[in-house]
Design goal:
The chain has 316 residues and is α+β, with helices and mostly antiparallel strands. It has helices spanning 33-43, 47-52, 107-110, 125-160, 164-196, 201-204, 211-277, 291-312; strands spanning 2-8, 11-15, 25-29, 61-65, 68-78, 84-93, 98-102.
Length: 316
């Protein structure tokens, strides 16, 4: 699926492939092979550039080839059940168009619509590229804050009761932060490389930076730095929290096992006495009318002594 959009004075106009004009933005989401063929023929964009971000394992990078620039970044997205992940987003700049390619509909490109048309222009391709990068960085920060709040809630619940479902949720958040860390560092390297493209002659005609564009790119770099610092800090916190709860679970298990061992020792004493007096041989108190109760009293007395000794050793 794809949409061809162009900024207009009162909003964003949508065009057909046959009406493709200079200054259009082509938003491509999970294209079919037939749609890829159509777009390649209509825009003359290299097939490798167009399909680069359709590989879910594609790494963040930039590539310049003749009159085309490819920028691949990892963007965050929210799966079901508050599970966060990342996926590649390809941004292609040519002399006439800007194209975004992604495997799924996402919050980054969705933020640029008729309702926000005053904040961007499809004609200003370089600035639009930096705005997409900026939106990705701010979305990372938003999701990191959501993960932090979710982690605090889970920690509160785990302090009350160790539920497996809460521990698994904490593990999912830990994995999300790990994905974010890797993706943010790769994206940061891409922004640094874009900053250096000003001095590359082959890219100057594609990435035309004015003062406002340079300021915006610097803001993008700052946002990514902040996101990296946050995700690393809270990644360490979540790791420490998981280790702490693992230690608590192990300690609780040791307490239970120690208690059960103490109960086993105490119950073993009367079992020993009853076994001895249950043998089919002459035993003390066999002729005594109160022999049964004497044996029980002796067993209880020895069990009480054992329980007292175990109590003093904090086995209960």
């Amino acid at each position: 699926m794809y949409k061809i959009l162009m900024s207009a004075g009162t909003g964003v106009d949508e065009y057909d492939i046959g009406q493709l004009e200079r200054g259009c933005w082509i938003d491509v989401v999970a294209p079919t092979p037939a749609e890829i063929e159509t777009l390649v023929k209509a825009t003359k964009i290299q097939r490798d550039f167009l399909t680069a971000s359709l590989d879910s394992e594609e790494k963040s990078r930039t590539e310049v080839d003749e009159d085309q620039l490819l920028v691949v970044i990892d963007i965050p997205f929210l799966r079901s059940n508050k599970d966060y992940d990342t996926m590649p987003l390809g941004i292609i700049l040519t002399q006439d168009y800007i194209m975004t390619v992604c495997l799924e509909a996402n919050a980054v490109t969705a933020a640029f619509n008729a309702g926000t048309h005053k904040t961007f222009s499809t004609y200003k391709k370089t600035r639009f590229l930096f705005q997409i990068l900026y939106k990705s960085a701010t979305l990372y920060l938003k999701y990191i804050r959501n993960i932090i709040r979710r982690t605090d809630d889970l920690e509160h619940h785990l302090r009350q009761a160790m539920e497996n479902s809460k521990l698994f949720s904490m593990l999912d958040l830990q994995k999300s932060l790990t994905y974010f860390t890797t993706s943010l560092k790769s994206n940061y390297m891409v922004t640094e490389k874009l900053l250096r493209l000003r001095s590359v002659s082959s890219a100057q005609k594609l990435v035309k930076m004015y003062e406002e564009d340079e300021d915006l790119l610097e803001d993008v770099i700052i946002e990514y730095k902040q996101a990296i610092e946050m995700v690393e800090m809270y990644g360490h916190i979540v790791n420490s929290t998981m280790e702490m709860f693992a230690s608590i679970i192990s300690n609780n298990l040791n307490i239970v096992m120690r208690f059960l061992a103490s109960i086993t020792i105490i119950l073993a004493i009367p079992t020993l006495f009853f076994s001895l007096w249950g043998m089919n041989v002459p035993v003390p108190f066999a002729e005594n009318a109160f022999g049964f109760w004497l044996v029980i009293a002796i067993a209880i007395a020895f069990s009480a002594v054992a329980a007292s000794a175990l109590w003093k050793k904090h086995m209960f």
